[in-house]
Amino acid sequence: MSTPLVRASGVRKSFGHLEVLKSIDFSVDEGQVVCLIGPSGSGKSTMLRCINHLESIDGGELTVDGDHVGYERRGDILHEIKESEACRRRTEIGMVFQQFNLFPHMTVMENLIEAPVRVKKEKKDIAMARGRDLLRRVGLETKAESYPRQLSGGQQQRVAIARALAMQPKIMLFDEPTSALDPELVGEVIQVMDDLARSGMTMIVVTHEMEFARAAADVVVFMADGQIVEQGTPEELLNNPQQERTRAFLSRVL
Ligand code: ADP
Ligand code: MG
């Protein structure tokens, strides 16, 4: 048996008195696509942010490819590691946000090569060659010299995906990647994500796009109120939910 690429067991997280993650158990195998769905405020973004240690956790264990992203074990105790070391480990985890977060003063190509050159110390021509491949993959080969403000939201989000892939991550995390887009631009981003899923990339996707979940997910996880209520194949979870809370949510979004 291979170990899962992401493994959460008993993960807890609070903000002050508010318990946002209440003992989450969850695993993702290499090559799997997992869609995380649930009402606003249920803890989906916090879960993603804990996976790449943009948030610390208060209990339980969370590993990516066997490593604690933000911690090291000394004896029986997990100690939080230095931010610089967390940054290095985080380079193996690609993240795409609702707001594309491109560097506005850099061209598309400069956005793509910034982290590989600065963080990984890659040679610029190697990073640029990969950048061109990635732009072709997301259908933007003619936009290398454009600035983000010259692109549509859908194009910017495709650049953001290419930028995350430029670090050659082991896994890609998406937090509502199409929620800020005009409806007519959603399809082009979903297409890129579909292609990526088909290429074998391991992905965790927080989304309200149920058609994407249906078509691309191996597993759909329904979260509510800081807990995983149920999970299953898209067929099981979307067509035949077992829990009343899941049914109520799906009746609102489907
Ligand atoms: P979702 O992504 O499912 O909408 P979130 O993970 O963003 O949910 O938020 C879960 C809960 O945690 C919400 O009640 C939110 O207000 C709260 N929360 C998230 N981030 C913070 C923070 N940095 N400080 C305090 N509360 C937070
Ligand atoms: Mg969220």
- Look at the structure and give the mean pLDDT: 95
**Small-molecule components bound:** adenosine-5'-diphosphate, magnesium ion
Q: How do the helices and strands follow one another from N- to C-terminus?
A: EEEHEEEEHEHHHEHEHEEHH
Helix content: 25-40%
Count of extended strands: 12
The main pleated sheet reads as:
6 strands, mixed
Strand order across the biggest sheet?
8-9-10-3-11-12
Structural class: alpha/beta
Spans of at least 5 consecutive residues whose pLDDT stays below 50 are none
| Basic shape | globular
Determine the strand fraction and express it as a percent band. 25-35%
Q: Over the alpha carbons, how many angstroms does the gyration radius reach?
A: 18 Å
Separation of the first and last Cα atoms? 36 Å
Number of helical segments with 4 or more residues: 9
Search tags:
6-stranded mixed β-sheet, 254 residues, 9 helices, binds adenosine-5'-diphosphate, single chain, 12 strands, binds magnesium ion, 37% helix, alpha/beta
